[in-house]
Amino acid sequence: xxxxxxxxxxxxxxxxxxxxxxxxxxxxxxxxxxxxxxxxxxxxxxxxxxxxxxxxxxxxxxxxxxxxxxxxxxxxxxxxxxxxxxxxxxxxxxxxxxxxxxxxxxxxxxxxxxxxxxxxxxxxxxxxxxxxx
Length: 133
Fold this sequence. Notes:
Layout: H1 16-39, H2 41-50, H3 53-63, H4 70-83, H5 88-100, H6 106-126
């Protein structure tokens, strides 16, 4: 007695044996879950109170490690930069730079690049290339 339903509106009816196995698996999963809850009543109740560990990790990832008061700090930094004459475009570009470069500030990166260029120029002066190569 298999009949196909409309596509997207469920699947076909399972044979009787498959339905029995499916029901048995569901009952087993329920028993295992009850057993886990009975074994760890303190942790289960504390998770319900403070949210699940997964929710806490998701919030931590979403917030990017920011601490309390991040909104106020961001607004203060924004006001200071606007007072210096920077525009929102500059601030957005700096934020993109930080994300793209894993939190490195532009100045740090530029300073390192300048040092590398100076060292390279000094080496070239000390040891000039001879010939075409």
